[in-house]
Design a protein that fits this description.
This protein is an alpha/beta fold. It has a single domain (about 1-155, about 175-205, about 260-265), classed as Rossmann fold. Helices cover about 35% and strands about 25% of the residues. The strands form two sheets. Strands 3-2-1-4-5-9-8 form a seven-stranded mixed beta sheet. A two-stranded antiparallel ribbon has the order 6-7.
Length: about 270
């Protein structure tokens, strides 16, 4: 099991192009909330995004930043995968976003202690949900700063009372790395055992639209897909495409309400 997790954790580099293309931006309401927690901080506010990937969770720290904070925010993204970082660096360059991207892991962060007012991890913390990693994250956070993790519900569509593609998920079943950490009590316990205080959680909902290509393409951005054989990858994607076509009989896009959960606690 642990060998499979390690392999899947290291598999994201080959997904970088599709990850950048098919993953949707995170809910703006989340970033508004993060900035509300940062109000009253010092003249220079430093934020670290761990497991930043291609920058999907990092860029909104600048693009959604309120005017009164724009000249005070300093953003750093950190990831262990060079190919994902290359996508992030290129995207920031194209959008003229002043983001520093650094090669590093949650278990061994290349930063001094007490460096950041806020550390975030979007749809990534389940890969480093250990006391050792959380202790290292706590080390780089300033006193009274906070660590915030977040994730969105899966993109599922129902037809005739069943989740479209459910039988395909079962066919290619792998042990879930994410699901155990959607238990708020378990996540709270890890925060508290790691020395964080005042644990809280918030939820944010929004409607998202998908084309058929986007809906199918999302399946090319998961560790499950990355670890399939070449033949199985082709079959896996083809099966989902055929299953989803029923949703698009008379429309170009389909919409789904997605709920995003954020959990945070203070040093």
């Amino acid at each position: 099991m642990q060998d499979d997790i390690s392999f899947r954790k290291k598999s994201f580099g080959e997904l970088a192009d599709d990850y950048q293309k098919y993953r949707k931006p995170y809910n703006k309401k989340l970033y508004d909330f993060i900035f509300s927690l940062l109000n009253g901080k010092g003249q220079k506010i430093k934020i670290l995004d761990i497991g930043c990937g291609t920058g999907k969770s990092t860029e909104p720290l600048l693009t959604n930043c309120p005017d009164q904070l724009k000249n005070r925010i300093e953003v750093t993204g950190c990831d262990h995968d060079q190919k994902m970082l290359e996508q992030a660096i290129q995207s920031a360059k194209e959008k003229a976003l002043n983001i520093k991207y650094v090669d590093g892991s949650a278990e061994m962060l290349p930063f001094d202690g007490d460096s950041f007012d806020c550390v975030i991890a979007g749809t990534a913390f389940h890969w480093f949900a250990t006391r050792d990693a959380f202790a290292e994250i706590k080390r780089v956070i300033k006193e009274n700063g906070f660590f915030l993790v977040f994730w969105a519900d899966p993109v599922n569509f129902e037809k005739d009372g069943k989740i479209v593609g459910a039988e395909i998920y079962k066919k290619y079943k792998k042990d879930s790395i994410i699901k155990p950490w959607r238990d708020l009590e378990k996540t709270k316990a890890l925060f508290e055992e790691s020395g964080f205080r005042d644990f809280k959680s918030e939820k944010f909902s929004e409607m998202q639209e998908f084309t058929l290509e986007e809906l199918v393409g999302r399946h090319k951005t998961t560790s499950k897909y990355a670890t399939l054989s070449l033949d199985d990858k082709k079959t896996y994607i083809s099966e989902f495409e055929n299953a989803y076509k029923e949703l698009f009989k008379d429309k170009d896009v389909v919409a789904s309400e997605r709920e995003l959960t954020a959990c945070y606690a203070f040093k």
